[in-house]
């Protein structure tokens, strides 16, 4: 979820083996933004997972289609955190396999359109990010904005809705876990947390998750380095809170997961804790908190 910092860790490799990835159907009217040989806007990884848990990863990749001409940015800019959440896609895939849970992941850069922003949020399509001007996002017309929403934002969220509907129809209310990563430095200030848990009103998942993470010796941010209570984001609130699903957003610091080894280690660490927390039957009920 991280948006700005003065430093960026070395990115982990962007892609992982394609096993258990279900390609998305091409969105209607997407021809002008996605060529036939380009990846679709989301992927379902480990789709046959049996656990009643859905992992989602809003900023999994830095992919930009040819039609958008890298948004006018060079490769150095596009490897930075402004384009994606470094390391978290690999953590999400490993965690999905560990928990035997499906994972829905974007396949487009957050610079095109941020799927974790309300459609009227000014950072939905940023003209500047961490001091970097994004030429391809300046002075967009309403039709150009709608084309990005129709091609990327809406199909991804429709896929989450459909997956949650399928899981609910199978007989168990699912738990929703949103996966992100954050920069170790923001505006020259170091961030001491190895991990942060963002949540709004439903304490069922975040409270025991934070307690067990702290018991392992980690410094855990409670709605830090960002807050899930301000409803600034989109995915967690729309797909979790509105449905009454137990949910949490997990933020892992990027310098801890910017290598294959680090990502694997943190997937195991999170898997150990989540396997315990997810045994609670009260998580698998619809509950709305005022």
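Sequence proposed for the structure above (290 residues):
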């Amino acid at each position: 979820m991280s948006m700005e910092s003065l430093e960026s860790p070395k990115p982990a490799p962007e892609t992982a083996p394609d096993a258990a990835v279900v390609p998305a159907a091409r969105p209607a009217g997407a021809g002008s933004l996605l060529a036939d040989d380009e990846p679709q806007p989301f992927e379902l990884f480990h789709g046959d997972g049996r656990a009643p848990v859905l992992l989602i990863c809003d900023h999994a990749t830095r992919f930009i289609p040819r039609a958008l001409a890298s948004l006018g940015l060079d490769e150095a800019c596009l490897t930075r955190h402004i384009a994606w959440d470094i390391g978290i896609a690999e953590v999400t895939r490993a965690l999905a396999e560990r928990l035997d849970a499906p994972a829905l992941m974007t396949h487009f850069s957050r610079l095109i359109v941020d799927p974790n922003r309300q459609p009227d949020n000014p950072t939905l399509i940023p003209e500047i990010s961490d001091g970097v001007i994004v030429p391809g996002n300046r002075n967009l017309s309403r039709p150009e904005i709608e084309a990005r929403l129709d091609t990327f934002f809406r199909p991804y969220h429709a896929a989450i809705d459909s997956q949650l509907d399928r899981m609910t129809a199978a007989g168990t209310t699912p738990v929703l876990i949103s996966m992100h990563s954050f920069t170790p430095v923001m505006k020259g200030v170091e961030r001491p947390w190895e991990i942060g848990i963002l949540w709004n009103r439903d304490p069922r998942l975040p409270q025991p998750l934070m307690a067990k993470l702290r018991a392992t010796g980690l410094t855990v941010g409670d709605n830090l380095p960002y807050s899930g209570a301000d409803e600034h984001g989109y995915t967690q609130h729309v797909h979790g809170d509105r449905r009454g699903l137990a949910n949490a957003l997990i933020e892992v610091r990027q310098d801890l997961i910017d290598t294959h080894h680090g990502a694997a280690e943190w997937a195991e660490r999170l898997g150990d804790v989540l396997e315990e927390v997810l045994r609670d039957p009260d998580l698998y009920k619809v509950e709305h908190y005022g």
